[in-house]
């Protein structure tokens, strides 16, 4: 448990396989010859210590807190010479318009299978200023003349 807490404090991504390997090492170091680090053992350990397996998201741990503090100080002085309507933020996002849900409700014992995931997408560039005024989104597709704009002068 101490090793897991230490690993998570360092933002090390720990999967079940890694935890089982560490359990084997600890078992060997304690001389437990009959100990087997199995999936059942892992599940009981997770239940006992209220450990869940979650989707990793976000990039919060990517930034150095000291550099962030310095940047905020520099940013304030940079913004002084500009009006709020002239300061913009832009970001791009993918719009996967043909992707079906990856989860479904099903009856117990029912067999189900997935489908190939469509990778068709549009890239959108969204932009607004500090006052919240939006610019017209920029849509970037894969083809020079998409069919959806066939009779439209773009």
Map the helices and strands:
Blueprint (H helix, E strand, L loop, with lengths): L1 H8 L6 H14 L9 H10 L16 H15 L8 E8 L26 E8 L8 E3 L14
Antiparallel strand pairs: 1-2, 2-3
Task: Using brief descriptors, characterize the structure shown.
alpha+beta, 4 helices, flat
A few lines on this structure:
The chain has 154 residues and is of the alpha+beta class.
Report on this structure.
Its main location: nucleus. This protein is of the alpha+beta class and 154 residues long. Among the domains are: 1-49, no CATH class; 84-100 and 117-153. 31% of the residues lie in helices and 12% in strands. It has helices spanning 2-9, 16-29, 39-48, 65-79; strands at 88-95, 122-129, 138-140. A three-stranded antiparallel sheet has the order 1-2-3, with no helix packed on it. Strand 2 (122-129) and strand 3 (138-140) form a beta hairpin. The termini are far apart. The mean pLDDT is 83.
């Amino acid at each position: 448990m101490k090793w897991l807490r230490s690993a998570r404090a360092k933002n090390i991504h720990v999967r079940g396989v890694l935890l089982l390997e560490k359990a084997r090492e600890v078992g060997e170091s304690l001389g437990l010859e009959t100990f087997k680090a199995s999936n059942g053992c892992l599940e009981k350990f997770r239940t006992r210590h209220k450990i869940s397996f979650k989707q990793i998201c976000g990039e919060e741990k990517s930034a150095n807190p000291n550099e962030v503090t310095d940047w905020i100080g520099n940013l304030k002085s940079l913004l002084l010479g500009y009006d709020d309507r002239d300061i913009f933020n832009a970001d791009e996002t993918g719009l996967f318009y043909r992707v079906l849900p990856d989860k479904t409700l099903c009856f117990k014992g029912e067999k189900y299978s997935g489908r190939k995931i469509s990778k068709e997408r549009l890239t959108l560039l969204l932009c607004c200023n500090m006052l919240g005024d939006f610019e017209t989104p920029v849509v970037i597709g894969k083809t020079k003349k998409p069919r959806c704009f066939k009779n439209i002068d773009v």
